[in-house]
């Protein structure tokens, strides 16, 4: 079994303008294929953070109320990720054999309207032989036909809009991939995490997971990062479930720095991608 | 403690045109406030139904594969529902005190785009005193401003569209109520069930639940049925989670009959509602 | 010069429920390439129809107020259509050379959101050599990738929605063709008319016109009818400009019959198209 | 007859990155109620501008091709605007009496989906007595319920979206006003022009015109400017018809300055409006 060690860090600074409730999802998840060797979370004094873990997803959340003024959140961790070999011959699971716990990932969600894109998915990918190859074809289509363009989408952009506009950031790429999969009756979900990008700036990354061969397999339609080294933060039906921050109040972000240091030899450089800027990669949800 | 006894029955008939996987959600839920005295589920011979219960929601699902030909599904139950007294002075819970398990009902979902309707909700209901009275104001606004009109919406219609079109059926009314609540930071979710309508035809009904005073309270923006007598089938983030049937295949529904018999004296007749037709009340999800 | 003679007829019957203003657009247009040999318009007695012709488009409208009760509108005409030979080498016109009067057909309209589909059009057709061949490629793409399916769209369905859903009727096919053209800077517009279908029922038909080689050329993405024999009723930016009827009041249509009789030998049968039903071909606009 | 004299000026600078076709609509319109005393248009040398006037609207367009490099467009004019007294008792025109030439302003357009907002308009304004007072009620509703917020909308934002989001800039305010009017069978259209704002920065302004009392009357839902002094540039069905610039090519705007100098005494200061920024007031259409 091959493993891969990364040191990850997030620094977030905010100027809080009104009493605000925060919910952060930035810690490495408790997940079978990754081992947190050490971690440290620091939050400005004066707040009483409360942690909870979603039993279904393993996502870890930190919630607290904060008064107006500056806020600093800093998370560091050293995480060992097990690199999983992917069999290129994995098959699709007939819907009737999709496990009960996985069944819900067949349904449409806020940003993945698979209920209106069934015909398109059938027309585009319905003739391909079922299996992981078909998901690879979806991944590739998204990579080739959608332009990576920071600022082209917002936190409410949906897969349907990305399909029409042909532009988005990593979460949009993942949402569209998920939507095609679900529309073809392949369970799929969103995964966010830390991963080393070949070109700065570093940021949270969003990819997707599809259920093939009786297991979840990661796909990165942006092609920007080696998914087998991704330090998983969160797993959800779509972006609303795994926002790195959800804020209820009036807040201005003043700093956001994500860094990933790899201890092992650098992975081979992914194919160059023009004008990549990850800053919008994983928008926060903010409710005034 | 007051209870209320209902006998409910569903008869569904289909003409299956291609091998199809079915997932039904028509059984009375296992739920603290209701007791299933007896129940009977009959499905045409030749299929091997598999039941599972979602641990989080108590929703009960029946899944099976079926070959082309006719299909009959018949469910009957006698259910005792505990009638809960609602304190009219229930307060809203500050977001910081919303329990971790309830927090997710603050987020937008496929048919409830609370992320784009925050300003509208604030403009419309933001000045009202927080508490159950505000949710009643939302319930009433939906009842008065949305026209109940079968055929005006489809299985993919969202709250945003209902808000613009001003027409829909019960699930649309519930979705819009949920959306306003979430946009005001009040957790809310969809509930479907059996309930006696004053006027035929009987059908599944959709209402919503909001988190006030530290508990879930039912609201029926259609005003068509006494919610305190609702036999709960399913609880979910929105309609996709509690469709009475989700089908993967080519199928034609040939019969749908829902009946509710009340053992106790008839509740007082709700105010008349012109041109009510519940037939579209709870659309099925069908994927070819 | 080859011409083609058709006898066309429309019978429309309505039950008027409240005082209503009608605007019909069912008469053969005054148009350079067609000659109206004879025509007859009959409307139930009791109304005072007023005719006007839009100077820009040549479209002819009949407007009148009508009281509650039955209404009959009957139009018959014998029209000689000049069959225009289309040079397969027609070139696109650089935007700078598009005539001032044609320039407006480059802009987005209600049902043709070319402003949001620029990238998609470029990705899909941008690499093809400019010219009529590129418009033919668009026509063919729409024919192959969109399913003709009555009931799949409404009078408010837009090209963007058709592109996502992959289903529609003739006006939707035409709208999508127009949208791709405009997004590629090729002026395009909607044309409705009478044309003989190989299979019943007859109905109004909607096709589109693109500006290539310094002239307007007709395209029928449905492939259902020989466009060179189309008796033109109306030309507009999209369907709202050429609805066969626009009604302000409460009205129920009780009969709609369109018939086209061709005097010349039947054109060769177009390729078969499964499950064709033209009844929704050209929805009316109705405002209560 | 009272008149009002303004000196207006526009300075636009671009960095052209690829051969581009431009169409500008920045000159004062030829219009019955305004007299252009003097005007001057200057465009960087090297281009061959061509002017045309739309016979229907009186809008004046300047078109030309330009090669990569810098471009300067400068327009100055001294315009005398006739201040029209508005009778507060103007009545609505029954649809049957709307003139043929005005009839088209009843129909939905790209950014004004009156075809889907009929019920909302009826619910909200249907009970008010018909007449100019009803349009004033619409104007006021938009002013009170929509937040003026630069950056909240884009060049493709529609009235429906503004209605849901409750935020926009002047063109969005005007689009929503137009949409409500049309949905109530009151003809309405967009007007853009130069008008003196009490607070900088100056910019093009968008307002709307409704047909009441047998004439067009101007309304400014933003309340930001005295519409009776507006120097009219363009009149159209919605923003796409009167964009100040429509560009086909790759272009970067580097400067945009609009100034309005009033010769007559300053009109009374309109009520203060927080955080007004007109920079997004009238987005250009750009097609790469």
Automatic annotation (TrEMBL), chains A, B, C, D:
SMART domains reported for this sequence: TGc (SM00460)
Residue ranges, annotated region (Disordered): 260-288
InterPro entries reported for this sequence: Bact_transglu_N_2, Papain-like_cys_pep_sf, Transglutaminase-like
Gene3D superfamilies: 2.60.40.2250, 3.10.620.30
Pfam families from the UniProt entry: Bact_transglu_N_2, Transglut_core
Domain Transglutaminase-like, first and last residues per copy: 162-223
Domain of life: Bacteria
Biased composition (Basic and acidic residues): 260-282
Protein name: Transglutaminase family protein
Organism: Caenimonas sedimenti
């Amino acid at each position: 079994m091959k493993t891969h060690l990364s040191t990850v860090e997030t620094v977030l600074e905010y100027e809080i303008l009104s009493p605000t409730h925060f919910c952060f999802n930035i810690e490495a998840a408790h997940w079978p294929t990754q081992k947190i060797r050490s971690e440290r979370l620091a939050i400005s004094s004066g707040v009483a953070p409360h942690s909870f873990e979603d039993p279904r997803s393993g996502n870890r959340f930190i919630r607290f109320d904060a008064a107006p003024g500056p806020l600093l959140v800093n998370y560091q961790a050293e995480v060992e990720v097990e690199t999983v070999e992917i069999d290129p011959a994995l098959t699709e699971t007939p819907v009737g054999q999709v496990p009960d716990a996985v069944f819900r990932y067949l349904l449409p969600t806020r940003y993945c309207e698979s209920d209106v894109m069934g015909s398109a998915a059938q027309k585009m990918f319905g003739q391909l032989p079922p299996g992981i190859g078909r998901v690879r074809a979806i991944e590739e289509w998204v990579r080739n036909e959608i332009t990576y363009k920071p600022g082209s989408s917002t936190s409410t952009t949906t897969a349907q809009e990305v399909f029409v506009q042909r532009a988005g950031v990593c979460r949009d790429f993942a949402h569209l991939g998920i939507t095609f999969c679900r529309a073809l009756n392949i369970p799929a979900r969103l995964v966010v995490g830390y991963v080393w990008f070949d070109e700065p700036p570093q940021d949270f990354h969003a990819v997707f997971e599809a259920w093939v061969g009786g297991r979840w397999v990661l796909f990165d339609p942006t092609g920007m990062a080696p998914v087998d080294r991704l330090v998983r933060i969160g797993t959800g039906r779509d972006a609303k479930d795994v926002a790195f921050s959800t804020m209820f109040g009036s807040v201005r972000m003043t700093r956001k720095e994500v860094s990933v240091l790899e201890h092992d030899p650098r992975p081979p450089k992914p194919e160059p991608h023009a004008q990549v800027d990850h800053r919008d990669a994983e928008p926060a949800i903010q409710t005034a």
